Amino acid sequence: MSYNHPENDPKYIGLNVNAGIEKPEAVNADSVERFLKKGKRQILSPDKYVNGILKGNITILSQAVTLVESNKPDHQKVAQEIIIKCLPHAGNAVRLGITGVPGAGKSTFIEALGKQITGSGGKLAVLAIDPSSERSKGSILGDKTRMEELSSDPNAYIRPSPAAGSLGGVARKTREIIILCEAAGFSTIFIETVGVGQSETVVHSMVDFFLLIQIAGAGDELQGIKRGIMEMADAILINKADGDNLEKANLAAAQFRNALHLFPPTGSGWNPPVLTCSALENNGITKVWDTVTDYITTTKANNYFQNRRSEQASYWMYETINETLRYNFYHNHLIKPRLPHYEKLVLGNAMSSFIAAHELLATYFKSVGNE
Predict the structure, then answer these.
(1) The domain containing residue 351 runs over which residues?
(2) pTM of the predicted model as reported, rounded to 2 decimal places
(3) pLDDT digits (tens, 9 = 90+) for 35-58
(4) Residue 129's closest CA among 66, 190, 194, 64?
(5) What tens digit of pLDDT does each residue of 160-175 get?
(6) Domain shared by 123 and 232, yes or no
(7) Are residues 9 and 154 in the same domain?
(8) Structural domain includes residue 312
(9) Cα gap 161→151, rounded to integer Å
(10) Residues 188 and 229 in one domain
(11) Using CA atoms, how far apart are residues 152 and 161, in angstroms rounded to an integer?
(12) Based on the structure, what is the number of domains in the chain?
């Protein structure tokens, strides 16, 4: 379903807005089927996937993640069984959300911090949400090409996922993939977003620590970020604090510290610090990780950590209900063919938007009641 914008009316001279594209599946079901059958691969039983995941088998983990990302009913049935059986083994990792303006050096920072974690004996999973190609629906940035050292580290697992038109570029299956990665023994989970936008709210609802990466020298730094995102941040990091940019980075850090003083106290009892680092030169990386561990220790001591995880679990239950209802409504056999007709009536002022919606919903509830 494409959407034509009213701004394309001839009366708006010189203004043209491209029509939106239909939201594609997170993973094309046919592609998943071909992937599983390639080399005589077939869908295993849920128990075999779970046993492989619990043993830390990356190949089995990747195949299970592929099933989770698929929207094909039989794939989802197996995936949900895997998740249920992995759930008792999950929850022990530190979940870190990383966001920032494009060009802030997120991938370079993730590689630097990731190498420190794996070098200290930890296991790291990086769930990098890539923008999607409108033609192939696949990832177009390719984080593995931007994290060459980390991608070859045996204690690291990088999973680029195409955003595929979902809210703010965040793959809707990310939370379920976190469960699988934790069951596989990964002690730290990074979730990287494509940039600053609505996706941050979604990522914030599934992580323990939310890190906002900024850079200096790109104009008025405080104008480049939304207040709401700054309020969500548990720490702000000024990256690329090296060379001629060092003085600008320190100035930007001072500006952010002053801005944070104006915000109300956090519910966690934690005062978000503003740090500087150079991921390229590997300076200040240890301080960032020390900040994360201090936050985890503080919030576990005052019970905020567990309370927040409980809130997140509740939030995702309702989100799953809403998403399932929405999907079932738009794919209902009576609703789908009626939508163009009602849209035409609304656009022609023959029916109000509210009456059209009410009639469609009544049709849907009636059809569900008769099933």
Answers:
(1) 332-370
(2) 0.79
(3) 555 544 578 899 999 999 999 999
(4) 194
(5) 865 554 543 345 688 8
(6) yes
(7) no
(8) no
(9) 15
(10) yes
(11) 18
(12) 3
